[in-house]
């Protein structure tokens, strides 16, 4: 069965590190891996990383130097900048986590190795074409139930593993304001494939994915400094990834592993960042629900560029921001391809995925 | 919040009772309700019901007397006959359970009141149009997460609540044969709406539904004596119900409550019953996945009759059995309407549901 991959197969991407406790707590699980830290704020400030960690750190000056004019597609002063780390990594798997997320405990009181569970999720197939009532059929002690078509039991490759949060739930500002004391204490012991055709709100706090399969679609958009919207970076990536996974026959799982989300961000600040998104998502979600990608879009890159065109044409009518975003999506793909020139292997993987 | 309904709102339908322990174990939870027992075998045999239960019992002779020639739509010598109980009930809610299903315990060791959880599921809305990563947003301590469109938070009425099984999982004969010792010990503490457009294998062992909303689609088909197929009664009902719920804007939930499934049925006998279904489902499921119901089908009955026509036309090519089944589907609706003449209230409910 699935095991934690070797160091040369996975990078951990962290948008910033505001406290040293974060890495100390994760030390037993992270120390053997390479970290990519993408500093989301003022490049003149120094991020301290405790001894013993193998890491590379990029601030805004580095991003500008590496990408040149294409650096415009990377958000500034917003954790959305983390996607630069996805681009510069050379590994097959990425695990990304926020610095206010700590090690959670399972109901028996044992520390949860989130990374290990994500890798299990990614290495097991997904079954997005029919719902299995006992959830992930590939877990120990589970299987496909009576009535599950045998032709669908092979499943498809899993591209994304979306983990959850104990303690502070990932609520929007209005819900935070209405329910300031709500805590998530329910450990739901399951992983499931999100069915084909169904969108979901992908949270970037505790997320892993297969770069070879879906990396170029994991763009976190234009958020933060100079943009009319924040806190929709991961949502944007989630909508795009889900539509592309459905089109290319790839799977997305959600559920385990849990992390412990230690503190709620300020709901008043969040409301300011979110309010445009709260309006716009009412049109964006039907747009993605109804999106059709052409048969010619057989790679993630081709899908993404086709998607950018539709964003420009259809969402551009909502606000000029989406025209700028559509341009940035294309720039992102150009930058991705520049830093990740296609190899024979990756071309093969993409072809297999698109079958 | 949701409470257990009064006696005059719910009936418990049981296909047969082969042992007295079954009702004794459920006595604290069932005694206040009315039972409808539909005897699935030889009508000359007597089913014993312990003292203190309020029940009505129908055997084959009763079914023939009540339905006349239309009794042909009710299966004989198969637990699929239970759907006759749905038809003769006059209550809003039905809970149906098999006689080898006992009271399960939650992780704290407390007896699970399955009926109460089903009613909670049915009284809370479903959210089939977008996936909520914290599962049922209406449970205590949960809500909609960031990025869930506000316009979809009202949800839709829940028509079906599908419960699960600890101990013996509901596997098909091949899986039973391959994994004779597998037991389900994982208590997954969740309920979720099955997304629109996604089919699922509905098991009749531990199932509740709102008769007013979906009753006429809860037909368990032609199984058992004289039929080329068995163990697909609940699956058939599940496919039909899901497509109709999606069309009419109703929800189906799965997950809690668990019952304890005490013994596995004989896999060799099951294989004999299932083998046609195992072949046929490979064509039946795409048929249901691609089914479109017309705008004119605004009630469950109209949907079901339209569906019967498509079954005849498209599945009739697989085997003459489906032509017979399509006829039986129409007969079932005629019988349902005869025993349940539309009232002003039910017409209103159906119109509301179809909006």
UniProtKB/TrEMBL annotation, chains A, B:
<keyword id="KW-0413">Isomerase</keyword>
<dbReference type="GO" id="GO:0033356">
    <property type="term" value="P:UDP-L-arabinose metabolic process"/>
</dbReference>
<keyword id="KW-0325">Glycoprotein</keyword>
<comment type="function">
    <text>Probable UDP-L-arabinose mutase involved in the biosynthesis of cell wall non-cellulosic polysaccharides.</text>
</comment>
<dbReference type="GO" id="GO:0005829">
    <property type="term" value="C:cytosol"/>
</dbReference>
<feature type="site" description="Required for activity">
    <location>
        <position position="146"/>
    </location>
</feature>
<keyword id="KW-0961">Cell wall biogenesis/degradation</keyword>
<dbReference type="InterPro" id="IPR037595">
    <property type="entry name" value="RGP_fam"/>
</dbReference>
<feature type="glycosylation site" description="N-linked (Glc...) arginine">
    <location>
        <position position="146"/>
    </location>
</feature>
<dbReference type="InterPro" id="IPR004901">
    <property type="entry name" value="RGP"/>
</dbReference>
<dbReference type="GO" id="GO:0052691">
    <property type="term" value="F:UDP-arabinopyranose mutase activity"/>
</dbReference>
<dbReference type="InterPro" id="IPR029044">
    <property type="entry name" value="Nucleotide-diphossugar_trans"/>
</dbReference>
<dbReference type="GO" id="GO:0071669">
    <property type="term" value="P:plant-type cell wall organization or biogenesis"/>
</dbReference>
<comment type="similarity">
    <text>Belongs to the RGP family.</text>
</comment>
<keyword id="KW-0333">Golgi apparatus</keyword>
<dbReference type="GO" id="GO:0009505">
    <property type="term" value="C:plant-type cell wall"/>
</dbReference>
<dbReference type="GO" id="GO:0005794">
    <property type="term" value="C:Golgi apparatus"/>
</dbReference>
<protein>
    <recommendedName>
        <fullName>UDP-arabinopyranose mutase</fullName>
        <ecNumber>5.4.99.30</ecNumber>
    </recommendedName>
</protein>
<dbReference type="Pfam" id="PF03214">
    <property type="entry name" value="RGP"/>
</dbReference>
<feature type="site" description="Required for activity">
    <location>
        <position position="153"/>
    </location>
</feature>
<dbReference type="GO" id="GO:0071555">
    <property type="term" value="P:cell wall organization"/>
</dbReference>
